[in-house]
Amino acid sequence: MPLFSLLRVFLCSTAVSLAHAATPAPIETDICVYGGTAGGVIAAVQAARFGHTVVLVSPDSRLGGLSSGGLGQTDIGNKRAIGGLARNFYERVAQHYARPEAWTRQPIGSYRSIGQSATDPGEPAMWTFEPHVAEKIFEDFARENNFTVLRRERLDLARAVEKTGARLTAIRLESGRVIRAKMFIDASYEGDLMAKTGVAYRVGREANAEFGETLNGVQTRQAKAHQFFPGVSPYVVPGDPASGLLPGISPTGPGPEGAADAKVQAYNFRLCFTDAPANRIPFPQPAGYDARNYELLLRNFEAGLKILPLHPADMPNRKTDTNNNTGFSTDFIGENYSYPEADYATRDRIRAAHLAYTQGLLWTLANHPRVPEKIRAEASRWGLSRDEFTDSGGWPTQLYVREARRMTGAAVMTENHCMGRDVAADPVGLGAYNMDSHHTQRYVNAAGHVVNEGDVQVKVPKPYGIAYDAITPRAAECENLLVPVALSATHIAYGSIRMEPVFMVLGQSAATAAAHAIAQKTSVQAIDRARLREKLLADKQVLVWTPPTPAPATKK
């Protein structure tokens, strides 16, 4: 063979070898969990405890989603509704803070949680915590249960899945890695795996009429909380429509009351502040800061707002979980509509825009001369925590994706389940929180003033069951996928279910169902549900609400 031909063969062989070397070898596993959220970690733990091989694919480096991303004040509703591994997580929080060395910024015993997250006397669980404490517990779960964690790995959106009929056989990641599994669990907030598998889903709000609800769709009458003071002008030049609208205000009306739309309730970041001087990072002025983006905030002060428009709930060691409060706060209303269906680059831009908005808001509150002096002083007392999110300068990286895609399964949880008018079949966990939605849009009312729309806060009468068929797709769509986070629920029912401890509960139940489907050699839809219930109860899951027995009356 001529020398040139030999050289060409050699180069081609080398190129093929290098290509194979650059592509990671496929992984074969029993159960693959997609999403490093709290629900995803717990699902992986439960699957591993059945003796199965498990791969947890986390698009982020940090495990735990919002639970380790700043949401330290657990939205709980009723603590007795939480059992199983979810309760164990909160018991581990309590065990951590029972150690004197855990208290680095205040004396042990000086901290008291309040409100819904208060720890009752003698309770072995604790419901408030610092972000790094939650992260360590999730890492401990992963280490103790010896499952594989792939970090910073995401679905290849162009070639995400392989299916044979209604069976999902493999997923492909951006790195080129292929994971083949018997069962899959989508525990992401966004429902990306669910969507790429071809499972039906929704984004936005249903009309009230579709499921016989009252709190779904456009809600201008309910939207009384977190509202502007009357009289705030939406226009660049106050009172002059010809000058144009300020940023973030819809040029159209909100839509008919109770009508469906494709809009999504606001996202924000849950912020970990501190007032401990040695640990505090003052709020910086972000690059590209533009005060016009906060003109509505300043006008709201001038219209009568007299409090800091933030909700800093106390966490251990002089820290906070700071959330949205009042008409203009950390919720970036109207700026997330495209997020649920967006590609990764678009989501990154949306996340960056939310962070820049938040940074500008905090700097404005602490420094802008039109902010009342008392408010500036209160804002300046706080700062970012040096010992949290140390890889990002104290800023959380997990955007609070309150709602994205929602699966349309064989069962759809609705307001009627939350209110006890309907009872879910085959419950695999309980919901207990308010039916809760943050604002969805900002518009101009008939008086020519700016108002927010979408906030709903309605209590449920008691904890209610969440149907097994709400975490499984329809059988014809996929027979070996479970979806415990982007589950099947209407917008307003999801507003009650979408709480971190509930996602953990449903993650454990989903993994139990996956293990049963493997053992029974059947689909997730066709498993023996009596045996599933038996195992969930054995693992101390709470499936039916039983009111606590009242204490006997004492004689006077």
Q: CATH topology of the domain at 27-203 and 458-538, which one? A: FAD/NAD(P)-binding domain
The overall average pLDDT, rounded, is: 95
Distance linking N and C termini: 109 Å
The CATH class name of the domain at 27-203 and 458-538 reads Alpha Beta
- Describe the biggest sheet? 7 strands, mixed
Could you say what the CATH architecture of the domain at 27-203 and 458-538 is? Answer: 3-Layer(bba) Sandwich
- Overall, the morphology is globular
Counted by DSSP, the helix tally is: 13
Helix content: 25-40%
* Content of β-strand: 15-25%
CATH superfamily of the domain at 27-203 and 458-538: FAD/NAD(P)-binding domain
Regions with pLDDT < 50 over 5+ consecutive residues? Answer: 1-21
Task: Give me the Rg, rounded.
Answer: 25 Å
Structural commentary:
The structure is a single chain. The protein is of the alpha+beta class and 556 residues long. The protein has a domain of 258 residues: FAD/NAD(P)-binding domain (3-Layer(bba) Sandwich), CATH 3.50.50.60. 28% of the residues lie in helices and 17% in strands. It contains 13 helices and 22 strands. A hairpin with a 2-residue loop joins strand 4 and strand 5.
Layout of helices and strands, plus pairs?
Layout: H1 3-22, E1 27-34, H2 38-49, E2 54-58, H3 84-97, H4 131-145, E3 148-151, E4 161-164, E5 167-172, E6 178-186, H5 192-196, E7 201-202, H6 208-211, E8 235-237, E9 240-245, E10 273-274, E11 280-281, H7 295-303, E12 310-315, E13 319-324, H8 344-367, H9 373-381, E14 383-385, E15 406-407, H10 415-418, E16 427-431, E17 435-437, E18 441-444, E19 450-453, E20 456-458, E21 464-467, E22 481-482, H11 491-497, H12 500-520, H13 529-538
Parallel strand pairs: 1-2, 1-6, 2-3, 6-22
Antiparallel strand pairs: 4-5, 5-6, 7-15, 8-9, 10-14, 11-14, 12-13, 16-21, 17-20, 18-19
